[in-house]
Amino acid sequence: MTEDRQVRAAKNPDETHHLSFSQIPHDALTRADRPATIVAPSAGPSAPRFQTDPLTRVRELPHRYILAALAVGALFATTACGGPFPQSTLHPAGDLGFEIDRLFRLILWLAGGVFVVVESLLIYVAIRYRARPGQPPPARVHGHTLLEISWTLAPAVILIMVAVPTIQTILRTDGPAPAGALEVSVIGHQWWWEYRYAESGVVTANELHVPVGRPVVLSMTSADVIHSFWAPRLGGKRDVIQGRTNRLRFTPDSVGVFLGQCAEFCGESHANMGLQVVVEDSAAFEAWIAAQQQAPLPPDSLSPAAREGLEAYRRIRDPASNTCIICHAIQGVSGGLMGPNLTHLGSRSRIAGDMIPNTAEGLARWLRDPITAKPGSKMPNVGLDESEIAALVAYLQSLR
Amino acid sequence: MATTAATVGQVSHAGHVDDRSFLRKYIFSTDHKIIGIQFLIMSLLFLAMGGALAMMMRWQLGFPGQVMPGAALLPETMAPGGILLPEFYISLVTMHGTFMVFFAIMPLLVGVFGNFLIPLKIGAPDMAFPRLNMMSFWVAVPSGLIMLAGFWAEGGHAGAGWTAYAPLSASPEYSGVSLGQQLWCVSLVVLGLSSMLGAVNYITTVINLRAPGMTWFRLPLSIWALFITAILVLLAIPILAGGAIMLLFDQTIGTHFFKPATGGQVLLWQHLFWFFGHPEVYILILPAMGMVSDIIANGSRKPIFGYESMVFAIMGIGFLGWIVWGHHMFQSGMNPTLGQTFMISTLLIAVPSAIKTFNWLGTMWRGSLHFHVPMLHAVAFVAMFVIGGLSGVFMASTPVDIYIHDTYFIVAHIHYVLFGGSLFALFGAITYWYPKMFGRMMNPFWGKAHFWLTFVFYNLTFFPMHQLGLQGHMRRIYDPTQYEFLQPLQPLNQFITIAALLLFASQAIFALNFILSWFRGTKAEANPWHDNALEWTVPSPPPHGNFAVTPTVYRGPYEYSSPEATEDYLPQNKRLPTDRMPASQPAGD
Q1: Is the N-terminal amide bond of A366 cis, ω within 30° of 0?
Q2: pLDDT digits (tens, 9 = 90+) for B522-554
Q3: N- or C-end of chain A: fewer Cβ atoms within 10 A?
Q4: Do A241 and B332 count as a contact with CB atoms less than 8 A apart?
């Protein structure tokens, strides 16, 4: 187990720092499951088969109750541990994520404490006071005012312990944007993300590039249904709604690629609406911006295959809605607004809502049949032949 | 008013020979007990169907791309080659939620037990409006059939989730569904009519038809809970119906309530839906709490601890339920100050919930616990409700909700409340009142087998979903394996699927026990659980008109182990030498 963890830690050093929270190993998941499966009662209780009076006999059930409760407890413990999951909310990589994580842990301890106390009490009572033959009847108690008042106040106190830090966190994280923040407009589409950088004019899709250490403010809206922008390790999640602009603010604190996706159910391909946030140092970020501002290569410096692809891209098709340039924009070539801007498609690592690798093979698969690759896709099956597909792939790959 | 009840009881029913035809007695019956049983059969069928839909979803999540056993029964438009289509999967998600909430849990709690228990427990011969009651059932049936019909609608069934968020639900161009979504709206409007007819009836009956001596604070907690629930139903359902009609108009006659491009408001739907939806949550849990209170007092052979605070807690939950709807919309971009207000009102609900939990513990404390099958389910209800309540605190804290909103953590939470809470209570309640409904006992051995299998597999199914959610697993996705970052979670997904299939299979025990006991079960005496409430003073099943003589009530329903009685229970209508006759009215209090 230690070896295992060292290997993983070596692969991704920033995964280790939260392990101190709970020393349960990554594999606790599977371990916790094992006792749990054993608990499943293999044989039914050996109660008399036909009881006419359900009150006459009391069976010994508690030990199984305890086992079941232990299994539940073990599973509960696993929620407290990290794991080798790149999407985990338990490994924040930005200030917002960190704030949320801290609050989450506070509530986890409080709720965990209440859970243990109340459920133990319940199990204790269930075992201790089960009916035994010959015992005197229980005292007829109708209530106890002091007790009832105290267990009204006790949860109220715990809730204040939750409410106060929550409000503090809201005030810290939900204020106006700090000066010098990077502003990016995010537009949700069925089923991809569009990003527009206010200061540099860069327009791209699905891959959001941001510099490390600088506050980012996303101004988000939707072109169609409700989506929700979510990059778990950065902490952000906010609905993206047509007719409204919602804002999300965070400051990433480590370099890396952070995955995310749409979190609000948005139709048939809701499951195919990924995104990534590429956090890079400021030099790399500036270089990326500069590259994105470049115009694409002029047609005469393209390879013959790519030139052929450009022709295919411009070709008017029947019906006209099957024409590439109606929906897509490439600087200097076309200005469609329905689909992602393709001017620098070659610089992105994935296509189609961040779901398909941006390789010759991936592009060809997408062009051949978008509807199968992404069910319900708004890009129709254009009916390209194989030579057109090869040419288009060459052209799209030239757009770097 | 009690005089009315008494007169009706004596004149038309006492010692009356029942000469109604089969049709009037069992099909178009105005007898609240028969209507309750009709609701029971209908909603158990929908419960089984909702479960089957969930199994298909679980299969797809655990084993995506693999041929589903039994998929050959489905038409090509749903599962060609035995593999579920993505659009069908989305209909499954939508319809599992819709059927379980509106056609299984809600009618089971309100339609079945509201009908069956209210007149019997307050000492009335029937509901205040028996024909409205019959209509309530016969409106619910077509509503369910309309909802079912959507599966065969062109373009597939509704696919916008059970919450039907606009504009996805409002525009066929976004969802690819038109007729299915329209049927969804129509069905809910019709069902709303059924629920409102029931609610009016319950409220009137509880206020007007209580037997002499049955004061408000002698009502069983199940009746208190059903009464408050009926008020919630009456006030909440019209909002859903109104919203559904607006949604239907957006789809069919070109209105723009929810279409921002032409001046509508997307969030209006969410406000309407959750202003209904959160009281609905309490509609789905309050009657369960009430019946669990009855069962726990009985199983502990002790009076319920803190009866008054239980009643006030029910009222408190019922009231607070109206001012928390915004916590479903924390991520919609609401003003943070408004968010804080909703956060605080949401946290406040934990207080009455905690009062109830501790009162149940207090009832069991130093009791003489008899773990009959209903008691097992009731105690499991308490244990599971605690987990569901605590996971709710995470969501109430707005920043933490940013983490877990729309993940499997929410799925775990809702199932801990609705399955761990409501459904365990329902299994207990059905077992408890089965003898009163059918005159026979359910088999206790198979009842216990069903309980333990359900309890174990239920937890193995839903507890790991907390983990899934925290690790970033979104709700409502068709194929988790296509995300690299979800692949490490796939073993857990498969584990959950297997546990869920076993959980579903375990329900066969309940179904068989339910059906076989109807014909073969041990004949039930009038009071098999030695309970104090009025329904146990009449034969099982009670005759048409319930009480041969209108009962007079001398005390509350929880006088177990009373030193004044020779047995360890003391029926509400048993007159002790020290009891005075109540005033002729049940005091119009």
Answers
A1: no
A2: 999 999 999 999 999 999 999 999 999 999 999
A3: N
A4: yes
Overall fold of domain A86-129+144-293: Immunoglobulin-like (2.60.40)
Name, in order, each residue with C-beta under 8 angstroms of A109's C-beta and a sequence gap of 6 or more: none
Domain match, B12 and B102 both: no
Is the domain of B15 the same as that of B77?
no
| Minimum-distance CB partner of A52 among B307, B369, B522 | B522
- Look at A162 and B160 and tell me if their CB atoms are within 8 Å: no
Same-domain check for residues B23 and B169: no
Say whether both B180 and B231 belong to one domain. Answer: yes
Residue in the structure block whose two tokens are 């009706």 = B8
Helix axes B286-300, B266-283, angle to 10 degrees: 20
In chain A, ranges of CATH 2.60.40.420 domains: 86-129+144-293, 299-398
CB B286, CB B231: distance < 8 Å:
no
Chain B residues in contact with A140 by the CB 8 A cut-off are 302-303, 559-563
Q: Is residue B511 part of a domain?
A: no
Q: Does A66 touch chain B (CB under 8 A)?
A: no
Q: Do B186 and B153 form a contact (C-beta atoms < 8 A)?
A: no
CB contact under 8 A, A263 and B464: no
**How far apart, in whole angstroms, are the C-alpha atoms of residue B199 and residue B283?**
11
Q: Which of A40-54, A385-399, B374-388, B489-503 has the lowest mean pLDDT?
A: A40-54
Between chain A and chain B, the number of residue pairs with CB atoms below 8 A apart is 368
CA distance A295 to chain B (A): 33
Q: Please state, in angstroms and as integers, the Cα–Cα distance from residue A246 to each residue in A220, A222, B202, following that order.
A: 5, 10, 44
Instruction: Check B260 against A243: CB less than 8 A apart.
Output: yes
pLDDT in tens, B165-210: 988 999 888 888 889 999 999 999 999 999 999 999 999 999 999 9
* Res B584 pLDDT > 60: no
Chain A residues in contact with B484 (beta carbon < 8 A): 86, 259
Give me the residues of A, 252-271, that contact B with CB < 8 A: 259, 261-271
User: Where residue B159 sits, what CATH number does that domain have?
Assistant: 1.20.210.10
The domain of B569 spans: 1-28+529-589
Residues from chain A that touch B483, judged by Cβ atoms under 8 A, are 87, 259, 261, 274
Same domain for B41 and B22: no
Q: What is the CATH number of domain A299-398?
A: 2.60.40.420
As a whole number of angstroms, the distance between CA B526 and CA B535 comes to: 9
B398 inside domain:
no
Query: Predicted confidence band at B17 (pLDDT cuts at 50, 70, 90)?
Result: low
DSSP code per residue over B153-187: STT-S--STTTT-TTTTT-HHHHS-SHHHHHHHHH
Does B63 share its domain with B192?
A: yes
**Does residue B112 belong to any structural domain of this protein?**
yes
Q: Give the CA radius of gyration of chain B.
A: 24
Segment 352-391 of chain A within 8 Å of chain B by CB: 355, 375-376
pLDDT tens string A299-336:
888 898 999 999 899 888 888 888 898 899 998 888 88
**Count of other CB atoms within 10 angstroms of residue A254:** 15
A58-86 per-position pLDDT tens digit: 444 445 555 555 555 555 444 444 455 66
Strand partners, A218: A184, A248
The domain boundary, picked from B279, B300, B324, lies at B279
Same-domain pairing of B24 and B41: no
Residue B536 within any structural domain of the chain: yes
* DSSP H or E segment with residue A147: helix A145-173
One domain, residues B109 and B87: yes
Write out pLDDT tens, residues B316-346.
999 999 999 999 998 888 888 888 899 999 9
Last-in-domain residue among B279, B313, B348: B279
**Is the overall model pTM greater than 0.90, yes or no?**
no
- Please give the tally of structural domains in chain B: 2
**Assembly ipTM:** 0.89
